[in-house]
Amino acid sequence: MTAAYQAGAARESFPWGLVLALALAQLVAWGTLYYAFAIVMAPMGAELGWSKAAMNGALSVGLGVTGIAAVGVGRWIDRHGGRMLMTVGSLIGAVLLILWSQVTALWQLYAIWVGIGLVSATVLYEPVFAVVARALPSEYRRAITTITLLGGLASTVFIPLTQGLVDALGWRHALLVLAAIELPLCAGIPWLLLRGRESRAPAGTSATKPSMNVVRRAMAHSSFWLLVATFVCTALLHTALLFNLVPMLEEQGLTIGEAVAVYAVIGPSQVAGRIALLTLERSITVSVAGFIGAGLPVLALVVLGLSHAGAVFAFGFAVAFGAGMGIKTIVQATAAPEFLGREGYGALQGAIVMPVYAAQAIAPFAAAVIWQIGGGYKLLEDVLLAIAIVSVAAFALAALLAPKIQTKGRPTG
Question: What is the pTM of this model?
Answer without folding.
Answer: 0.76
